[in-house]
Amino acid sequence: MYLILLGPPGVGKGTQGVLLADATGWQRVVTGDLLRTAKDEGTPLGLQAEQYMTAGNLVPDQLIIKMVEEKLAALPDGTGVIFDGFPRTEAQASAFNVMLDSLSRTIDAVVVLDAGDQVLTDRIAGRRSCRSCGSVYNTVLAPPKREGVCDNDGTPLFHRADDQADTVRNRLDVYHRETEPLIAYYEGSEAAVHRVPSEGAPDEVQGKVREVLGVGE
Ligand code: AMP
Asked: What's the confidence (pLDDT) of residue 161?
C-alpha cells in the first residue's frame, strides 16, 4: 500500500499516520520530520531548508524530491508507506509519478483530512511533538500523561518554531494555494481519494480512516 495523507497543517496527519502505522505496520515517510532532523543535525539539506521552514514557506521541490527518492531507496521492496507532507505541489506530484514508475509502484489511496481554519489554528497553538517517535499532543485537547513528556518513550516534547501564530497563517495560505489543488489532481488519477472530516477526537477520526481504507477492525 502506498497511501498519501493530504490536508492542511494541524489537521492531524501526524497523529493519524502514527495510529495507522501502529495498526498496519506500514512505514511513515514524513517530509517535515525528515527536514527537522536534517536541520537539527546541521546537514547541507537542513541548512538549505531552514530559512524556508522558519518562514512557513515550502522548501524547493528539487530538494524534497531528492530527499524522498533517497528515503524510498532505503526501504525494503514491497514496504507499505504512508506519505505525510508529500507531495505538496503539482511539480512534486509529477516527479513522484516518475519515481513510482521506476519502482513499479502506484499510489493506492489518498486520504484527505479536513477541518476549518479556526480548528487548525487552535490545534497548532497547543501542539507539542515528540522528536523520537513522532507522537503529537495538545496541551489543552490531548495532553500527555506527564506534562512536557512523551507517553510512549519519555522523550521531552517540543513546540515547533513554525507553530507560532504569524507563521501558521502563512502555512495555511501556502496550503490553500499550493497543496489543496492536489485533491483535484488525484481525483483525476487512478488513486482512490477518500475525504475524511478530522474535527473529532483522534480515535474517532482513525476509525473513519481505517473504514475507508478497509483495514484493521
Ligand atoms: P510539516 O511538518 O509537514 O508541517 O512541514 C514543516 C515544514 O517543512 C513546511 O512548512 C515546509 O517548510 C517544509 N516541508 C515539509 N514537507 C514539504 C514538502 N513536501 N515540500 C516543501 N516543503 C516541505
From this structure: 86
